Amino acid sequence: MEDFNVYEGIMDGLREAVAYKQGDHSNSKASVRATKLFTIKDGQMPTKAQLDEVREAAKREIRPDEDAPELSPAMYKAFQCSVSQRNRRKKNA
Questions:
Q1: Quick check: 35 pLDDT over 70?
Q2: Is 0.70 surpassed by the pTM of this model?
Q3: Which of 19, 38, 39, 93 is deepest in the core (most CB within 10 A)?
């Protein structure tokens, strides 16, 4: 199994992000998807209106704007890693 060097992973991600920002999309993946997390507590039931809202949102196209710009593949990967680490800490707490 290959060792993972955190520093090198971060530097690779930054290099990819800079290249992406400069217009080099050669390392980009074809299907980058947004992730939305819902936390439902034990016994909590969503309302019909909430379920309908989620179903409608799932049908809509994701449109980046100035407040929420499109993530480069490297930035998306870094975000996924930080969420995974946060979830592990929560689980072990």
A1: no
A2: no
A3: 19
